[in-house]
Amino acid sequence: MNEVFAANFRILADGPFEHKNIHVTWNSEPLKLFPAVKKQVDTFWELLSKSYLYNGRLVRLDAWSSDNSSLNLQLSLSEYKLLMYSNKNADYIFTKWGHSQLSRALGLNAIVCTNDDRFVLIQRSKNVGEYPGKIDIVGGHIDYEKVESPVEIFSAVYKELNEEIGLESTFCSATCLALFETTANMKPELVFYIKTNLDFSDIKRAAETAVDSFEYENLFSISAQSEEIYRYIAQYHNEITPSALGSIYFYLKLAEVS
After folding, report:
1. Cis link prior to 132 (omega < 30° from 0)?
2. Other beta carbons less than 10 A from residue 67's beta carbon
3. C-beta of residue 162 within 8 angstroms of C-beta of residue 171
4. pTM metric for this prediction
5. What pLDDT, on the 0 to 100 scale, is given for residue 152?
6. Following DSSP, what letter does each residue of the chain receive, concatenated?
7. At what angle do helices 153-165 and 200-207 cross, to 10 degrees?
8. pLDDT at position 150, please?
9. How do the pLDDT tens digits run along the chain, 258 residues long?
10. d(Cα 94, Cα 104) in Å, to the nearest integer?
11. What is the torsional sign of CA 44, 45, 49, 53?
């Protein structure tokens, strides 16, 4: 594995996994924080300049298992302010209180490849909580208020695509490539390969009216050819989010065997 990739994530479950082979076990009880952790999270949240942030309920990864073709996810509730605190203090939390007190909010990452062989990227807004201004791929978290109960992973991915870039599920297909964990904040991430029959110009047009388009400053694309992506990463890897780097690794791996 290229050292740029290796430094940013570790593999938890390597797919691909078909829709029918991802199984969810749901626990509706929210994560129980230790009193000392809760106090620090609340204090951290109060000190944030957060006029543009909302403490919504997020879906958390409690545990997982996999074999050659299936992925089993045990999910429960968390919240955004714990995610923000955990992202900033992951090593401290893990050392002092252990794995159970980390946010573990499950990220959704969408590698969108268009009909005209373009690879979709965004530059994140400077007014978002995570990695403001950085280069990223389309994605987010599972907002518990906006998804089916029990959680249906692929529905959540399609909802994220629609809300962020206006891409409707009728114009694309999704395959789950892997589950990985970012090194910096011990955060679990699912990555999906999204193939659409639309050209990038169509995506760009649809994104103009997307509900969550405010989350990024620029929607752009590069060639979906592996050699071009490697060149782009070599030049800009310090500006790319860890979750995007992890996701791109699995896309390149897929491209090698396709």
Report:
1. no
2. 9
3. no
4. 0.94
5. 87
6. --HHHHTTEEEEEEEEE-GGGEEEEEEEEEP---HHHHHHHHHHHHHS--TT----EEEEEEEEEE-SS-EEEEEEEEEHHHHHHHHHHHHHHHHHH-GGGS--BPEEEEEEE-TTSEEEEEEE-TTSSSSTT-EE-EEEE-BGGGS-SS--HHHHHHHHHHHHH---GGGEEEEEEEEEEETTT--EEEEEEEEESS-HHHHHHHHTT-TTGGGEEEEEEEE-SHHHHHHHHHHHGGGB-HHHHHHHHHHHHHHHH-
7. 80
8. 62
9. 677 788 899 999 999 999 999 999 988 788 899 999 999 999 999 888 666 778 888 999 999 999 878 999 999 999 999 999 999 999 999 999 998 999 999 999 999 999 999 999 999 998 888 889 999 999 999 888 755 656 789 999 999 999 999 999 999 999 999 999 999 999 999 999 999 999 999 999 999 999 999 999 999 999 999 999 999 999 999 999 999 999 999 999 998 876
10. 12
11. positive
39 phi-psi bin (left φ>0, alpha ψ -120 to 50, beta other): alpha
CA distance 118 to 199: 8
Other C-beta atoms closer than 10 Å to the C-beta of 163 total 18
Provide the residue type at 90 as one letter.
A
Question: In angstroms, how far is CA 238 from the centroid of its own chain?
Answer: 18
Cα Rg for the chain, rounded, in angstroms? 18
Tokens linked to 17 = 């996994």
pLDDT tens digits for 179-236?
999 999 999 999 999 999 999 999 999 999 999 999 999 999 999 999 999 999 999 9
